[in-house]
From TrEMBL:
Protein name (database record): 5'-nucleotidase
InterPro entries: SurE (IPR030048), SurE-like_Pase/nucleotidase (IPR002828), SurE-like_sf (IPR036523)
Gene Ontology terms for molecular function: 5'-nucleotidase activity
Gene designation: surE
Coiled-coil spans in chain: none
Amino acid sequence: MASSRRLRALITNDDGINSPGLSALAAGARDAGFEVVVAAPHVDASGVGGSVMSVRDGDRTLLHRRELPDLPDVTAYAVEGHPAYIVHSAGRGWLDPLPDVVLSGINVGANLGHAVLHSGTVGAALAASMHGWRALAVSLDTPWTPLERPHWESAVHFLPEVLDVLLAAPDGTVLSLNVPDRPVADIGELREARLSTFGAVQVHVDYRDGEHGEALHSFVTEISTPPEPGTDAALLAAGHPTLTELQGITERPGVLDSVRRSLNAG
């Protein structure tokens, strides 16, 4: 990484190009010394995970130049595609020069537990690791109905420290940072956390057959059992920002050997 040039950061998210959290993250990366380019979905793409879908006209996916609030000198695109699609496109010839890191967020709402599988914010970061890039997903623990003015500055406050950790890590490292939606003065120290079983909330789905036909109705319920100590959900609830290293899909060798040993033992 030793070079006289500035490191380049691709900034994306899943809440869409108009999210204030996206602008806050881009400004934070710029202030940390990165050369910044922004590319985010043209509409909200929350919950798409690692999807690489895009709106296509033949072999074209449209880009729309945008100017972000208070960032007139930052190149920004609204892309008619999902976050992981944007990252993969950057690595398949679109962006030149390529990014050194991918920063995704600041997400509206925490990304906790094994439910991060469904997050488009995390999906973009995991897609970056497939190209050998370091990546960071940043999420703010806003209520389900966010406050009028979330504390984006609190997430940005921890960005320099976490970026130092990220840049010191091996290529392809993916980190997930969750920050309480509180003033900086009311937040505890940064803690490393393991993933909780699921997260802080769950989506419940009901089947209904009414006058408009059959439908699935979704609503969010809080998990009633206390989170396990040391997990991201527990530490975040206690007021600590949490940092977790994530790994993408990988193989686990020995499946046939274990089956054969089991059969032979029987």
